[in-house]
Amino acid sequence: MQTRIAMAAVTAFLWLAGSPADAVDGHWCQPDNGRLEIMGPQITTPDGHRISGAYDRHAFRHVVPDGEDRAGAEVDMVLVDDDILHRMVAPGADAKIEVWTRCQAQVS
Questions:
Q1: Which residues is 18 bridged to in the sheet?
Q2: Tens of pLDDT along 70-105?
Q3: Which of 61, 94, 56, 101 is nearest to 77 (CA)?
Q4: Burial class (CB in 10 A: 0-12, 13-18, 19+), 98
Q5: In sequence order, which residues have a C-beta less than 8 Å from that of residue 2 and are 6 or more positions away?
Q6: Are 33 and 98 in contact (CB under 8 A)?
Q7: What are phi and psi of 76, to 5 degrees?
Q8: Among 59, 70, 74, 75, which residue has the least CB neighbours within 10 Å?
């Protein structure tokens, strides 16, 4: 229960601290965790699973699908600005805010 309250507080803080940006949709990268893609209520997770979640223009929430590390955990993401996304996977003692950035366009 305390973990859920703490997560709600962190999510609320991140939401209020972040300035409204364009939208959470797009391709996101993080050196330790790979890539993900959000398009409306659909997300492609870093492990390549395409699932649905709770979409808001500036936030996204989903549950880690079966077959992935930490399956069943809740993932909260909040857009901080046009190019920065904060992501937290909880519950867990190791829950921390991950900073994701928009992926750079690949040049051939």
A1: none
A2: 899 999 999 999 999 999 998 766 788 999 999 987
A3: 61
A4: middle
A5: none
A6: yes
A7: -115, 135
A8: 70
Contact 27, 102 (CB under 8 A): yes
Residue bearing tokens 């229960």: 1
**Opening angle at CA 90, ends 72 and 53, nearest 5:** 55
DSSP string, 53-91: -EEETTEEEEEPPTTSTTTT-EEEEEEEETTEEEEEEES
Sheet of 74-81: strand order equals 50-52, 42-44, 34-39, 26-30, 98-102, 84-90, 74-81, 59-63, 54-56
Using a cut of 0.85, tell me whether the model's pTM lies above it: no
Residue with tokens 């996101």: 28
